[in-house]
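Issue 218. Parser rejects a valid record. Input:
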Amino acid sequence: MEKFELYYIYHSCFALETKNYFLIFDYFKMPLKEKNDDISLEDKILQTDKKVIIFSSHNHHDHFNKDIFNWKNLNSSITYILSSDITIENKQGNYFRLNKGETLELDGISLTTYDSTDIGVSFLIKVDGIKVFHAGDLNWWYWKDDTKEEERAMREHFQGIVGKVSEHQDIDLALFPIDPRLEEFCFLGGEYFANKVHPKIMVPMHFDDNFFITEEFKERIVKFKVKGISIKKTNSSLL
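Output the parser choked on:
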């Protein structure tokens, strides 16, 4: 696996730095800055000499913020890769809108989109010798008040998508939702994904400020021989 650095911004937003790129996933909002922050989007990433690509998996407010389009004022060469449910005004040549099941070859990266169990897409990206999966809102959304029919439909939909992703048994890094609102079922989707796909490293997201949950998830996926990463704070370097 080639060298890379991963920064956790907030919620489902990460910045991945490789040899030639900065990839930013599902920007929602900037958390309050602290003196010991490891990363600054504005200073270190958006004004870098590396190629910057912004990904948004769907239009939910906690995964997409139209402020990302203002970042062109800091870096005019930014490329945007967006789910097709996101509306773009004044679309330019460096904007791409993708449905599930599409592929894209762009500036040295290879991209495939997969379905979600909510709306939008999930992303599988190969960049600088690294294969990374960002799930968006793909998860086993098992709510306690689901009917039997709803639970079955969700289970089959989720497992079907993961079955397609599992054809890639060489994923280096997977970013996956672990949502505490699901209570005792919050690890269900993540553990299933770890067991079926076996990414080398798996990082939780979509947990807001419930950092404690990341350590438990790390411990739970050891049995699948998947390395987990616990997260202590926002704007932090993870890898």
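Fixed in the parser; the record now loads. The chain has one domain: 5-237.
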